Amino acid sequence: MEQTKSLIKEVLSVVIISLIVVIPIRMYIAQPFVVSGQSMDKTLADGNYLIIDEVSYRLQGPQRGDVIVFRVPEEALALSNYSLDKKMFFIKRIIGLPGETVEINGDSVKIFNEKNPKGVVLNEPYAFVDKLSPYFKDIKKTIILKNDEYFVLGDNRHNSSDSRFWGPLKKENIKGKTFLRLWPFNKISVAPGDYNNYQF
Question: What domains lie within the chain, and their CATH numbers?
Fold first, then answer.
């Protein structure tokens, strides 16, 4: 009887300690995220299981090329006729940073900033363009980003609801950046999709 009580006490202790450790990690450090949809093809596929880093952006700001998870802004919800109270998350790539001007001309993205007042067309080897979707080739937009705004795009450029349609993303909406891809097993990787080899 004493052995049983001791075993139950030990199991309860392990469970309580595990909860004390795991819950704060889930709430404040890392969160699981399953990719839904094709907007990040060929970088991240539908069904990929990711761990999202929620700490890094408390230490330094988001960078161009980061793949991030964020709460869908009201403008995007309205565009899809969802209730503005609906809690949804998207995964996209950061293309434009606060204070920059982003010029979209079809599939070309040009960035204007203090270092490049004449603008630089981004080299984007990760971008996938389906030539059978001519509508996207006609998009022409110029967006000036405020100090708390980012311009985000899906890597699958002709199959993505992103800043081209609903505007800039506010920093407060950003949940975190991709840290690990755990599924599928043959594609396990750290910081999947991140890219920082822009030629500025």
Answer: 2-182 (2.10.109.10)
